[in-house]
Hints:
- This protein is mostly helical.
- 64% of the residues lie in helices and 2% in strands.
- The chain has helices at 8-26, 33-64, 67-100, 125-133, 138-145, 149-159, 172-183, 191-200, 207-217, 219-227; strands at residues 110-111, 120-121.
- The chain has a two-stranded antiparallel ribbon with strand order 1-2.
- The protein is globular.
- The model is unreliable at 1-7 (pLDDT under 50).
Amino acid sequence: MPPVNRNEPDVNVFLNSMLRFYAQASNANARNLNEVEYYNRHAADYLDSIQTLAVRAEELASHSGDDSFVTLANDILHIVDIVQALVGRLEQQQMQCEMTEGTPPFTCPTMRNIGPGRPKFIITQEQLEYLRELGFKWQKISELLGVSARTVRNVRHELGMAVGSNHDNISDLEVDREVRNVLAVNTRCGQTRMRGALMARGWRIQVSRIRASLQRVDPVGVALRRRHSIARRTYNVPAPNSLW
């Protein structure tokens, strides 16, 4: 008699609940700020849960080597992509609602100095680390905080945060090892999806290094993906925009 998986009903309940939520969120009123905020908040919670499930599935697939677990991990990663797209749409709708309703942009608080000079912006290390964990670049973080990029750089220097490269300083051998771990789960992973998978594991690596690593680790896969690339065509038209 096969063993009973006591977690299976809970997983089914979670997936069915997420499916119902996805249908409701897709039909949400894009002009209702409260409704969009509600779905955006809960979509982020579902995304956290499904990402955790994806990590567990990848670990199970890498340890077991069973093709069925690899297929399961790929299916869950596909669901992650769908939920991420939903979160992106809801965030965009929320921004549009806030702009329509005239919600003022965020203004970084300031603190007056004892002596002369401009008031000092109050920016904490927790704020910067949180925004970086969300994947924002330093230029975008400065825009979100309503300050200049130079101000953010000075604050990072004062807080003792790294001011140089924003990427992890690891060797090519370590990059190749992490790339192999991802390819063990998804053999058709290109550089864009590979970058996302590495970021999900906590690694920030330059695209050029990921591209070079794929050339070393999976040259056949790179060659096969290039076969499906669209060749640039030459057009002869009588005037600009005549094709449209």
